[in-house]
Amino acid sequence: MTKKRIFQNIIKQVVCIFLSLLVLVPLYMVVINSFKTKAEAARMNLSFPTTWVFSNYVDVIKKAGLLTGFVNSMIYATVATLVGVTISAMAAFVLSRNRIKVNRKLYYFFIIGLFFPVNYVTLVRVFQWLHLTNTRLGIILVFISSMIPFCVFTIYSFVESVPREVDEAAVIDGASPLQMFFRVDFPMMKPTVVTCFILQFMGVWNDFLTPLYLSSKSKLFPMTMAVYQFFGKNQQYWNYVFADIVLTIIPVIIVYFIGQRYLIEGTVGGSVKG
Amino acid sequence: MSPEGFAGLPQAALFIETKHLSDRSGGRITWLADPNILYKTYSDYKIEEATMNKNKIYPRWFVILPLIIYLVFFLFPSALGVFYSFTDWSRMTSKNGLHFVGLQNYIDLFTSNKNYMAGFWNTIKFTLISNIVKIIPAFFLAILLNSRLKGKKFYRTVFYLPSILPFVIIGIVFSSIFSYNTGLMNKTLSAIGLGFLKQRWLSDPNMVWKSIFSVDAWRGIGYIMTIFLAGLNTIDDSLYEAAEIDGAGFWKKLQYVTLPMMRGPIMINLVFGITYGLKVFDIIYVLTNGGPGHKTEVITTYVFQLYGTGQYGLSTALNTILLAITAVIGVIIVKVMSRKGELA
Questions:
Q1: pLDDT value of position A247
Q2: pLDDT grade, residue A208 (50/70/90)?
Q3: Nearest-CA neighbor of A108 among B253, B335, B270?
Q4: A108/B334 touch (CB, cutoff 8 Å), yes or no
Q5: What is the CA radius of gyration of chain A?
Q6: For A264, which of B2, B176, B226 is closest by C-beta distance?
Q7: What CATH architecture applies to the domain B104-339?
Q8: Residues of chain B found within 8 Å of residue A206, distances taken between Cβ atoms
């Protein structure tokens, strides 16, 4: 290696380490302060706690209604993602495979939703008409509707890379369209479908706006809302707030590390073809 | 088409085809004795028929369920919003029936002393600046992580990490970091002898936008970088080697190889970035709630406020303005992309 190369490598490493610190220090601050007493946490040091107060976590689970929040977030994220991504994949598959004029129009009709803002104010009205006010079903349906444009868009271009011959083989073997899709094509769309699952799961888990408008009952609040409310009431208890934050982000971090391979490789599926 | 139908291929058909083919072959039927050839011909014919009947294999009803949900919970409320924006709908009137007020809501929005237009311009400003400060660094970061570098997998993971965190959490954490007396930011500056740079990050009107852009970049750069990395992966090394043989340096290679090959990812990032910017809400709501004063209000924070005060008509009118902007930009982008074949 030449001297210039070595010098370049050192510069690169310094830049990367500095940026990593920018990312990690705030997160470290949250974790370390969640184990401190109220007085110590208020000083927001990066030092280790003088005594480790593990009971912060027990307290906060009791005080902040985290269990309800966790269950709600889990239900919203799991159900909405499973249903939303699956039906989007079915639609994207048919629209991509059979590009007759109507279907092309429908595709554009779907992806125009990538741009539109959701009108929550009138959505409240629609909820009243459909008797969905303050129901989990309503919130889940809104989550599904808002992930459809992105999923159709992402999956549509990937469908091309699944060879048509497998469809023909399935049809000749006597498969119905549903069987063909779920036994043959859906598994072959795994990279993009898994990417959508992960992104949308995290999206729903992190969402804040939908429950802010659509649920007035704290029984229906997901974790993000529960944290925000708790923060509003207990601003001086940083130890609790930080413990609450750690508990809220653990699930998304687990999902991230499980699905990381797919996120790095397939973030935008076929749409990166340059 | 069932397997039985195929297995029970009628002998008559075989015979007819044999005869037909033999006729065409002018009586020389020796090669037709191999039944496999006929078999293949028959199934080819069937496949052809099957592909012609695409509507049957790829049934339209696959689209119906997502279409209904999308229509009822996404597009219909937007259309309804346009309708309501011409009425006096509010918490009070909703019981006594609506009245059409024409463009009154829009006139109110433009002339109100609450300065909703500032929210409009702030939305545009946020969209432009937040994308510039994220996309350009993310691009070079992707190039850096695509080069030979020890530990690049670790760095990729770390840089992506913030974009999976909830906005609410990021907002709370940074409002702690930016607090004047106890916040990590000012403390660090003092500790390294830069105490004179201490700021009221979120309450100084001259600082607050810069703070918001920084937090937004902290959160968003990793995601954008990942899309660029996926694109860089698809560029063939031989292109760079060829450019090097021609004596191209870093910038020449960037200009003539990387940038042209990265049109897709750049487009995707612009599309996602612009739509994100125009609809931004969470991060501003949690960090500043539009303050100090109304310095950082955007369209969506005003929409939420007007909803909270029960002025639904005004709220939907403001949302309709946002809808119109996004619709225009959306249609332009879709047109441009479909012409270049990037959508299909």
A1: 92
A2: confident
A3: B335
A4: yes
A5: 23
A6: B226
A7: Orthogonal Bundle (1.10)
A8: 164-168
What ipTM does the predicted assembly reach?
0.89
Among partner residues A13, A20, A108, which is closest to B158 by beta-carbon distance? A20
User: What is the C-alpha separation between A245 and A227, in angstroms, rounded?
Assistant: 7
C-alpha to C-alpha distance for B344 and A271, rounded to whole angstroms:
9
- What is the CA A70 to chain-centroid distance, rounded? 15
Q: Of A93, A228, A272, which is closest to B268 when you measure between CB atoms?
A: A272
Query: Structural domains in chain A?
Result: 54-272 (1.10.3720.10)
Which residue carries 């949690």 as its tokens?
Answer: B286
Tell me the pTM. Answer: 0.84
Neighboring chain A residues of B74 at a CB cutoff of 8 Å: 113, 116, 118, 145-146, 148-149
**B270 in contact with chain A, both atoms CB, cutoff 8 A:** no
Question: Model confidence over B87-114: pLDDT tens digits?
Answer: 888 887 756 678 888 888 899 888 887 7
Q: What does the pLDDT look like over B284-299, one tens digit per residue?
A: 998 998 878 888 999 9
- Residue A267: how many other CB atoms lie within 10 Å: 25
Instruction: Parse chain B into domains and list their residue ranges.
Output: 3-58, 104-339
In the block, which residue shows the tokens 């940074």? B174
Of B159, B315, B338, the CB nearest to A19: B159
Which residues in chain B touch residue A128, judged by CB atoms under 8 angstroms apart?
Answer: none
A–B CB contacts, 8 A cutoff, strictly below: 295
B139 touches chain A (CB under 8 A): no
> Considering only CB atoms, which chain A residues are within 8 Å of B343?
107, 111, 157
How many CA atoms does the CB half-sphere of A39 hold within 13 Å?
2
pLDDT value, residue B45: 55
Cβ contact B264–A271 (<8 Å): yes
Which residue, B289, B304, B95, is CA-closest to A119?
B304
Confidence of residue B152 (pLDDT cuts 50, 70, 90): confident
Residue type at A81 in one-letter notation: T
pLDDT at B233 over 90: no
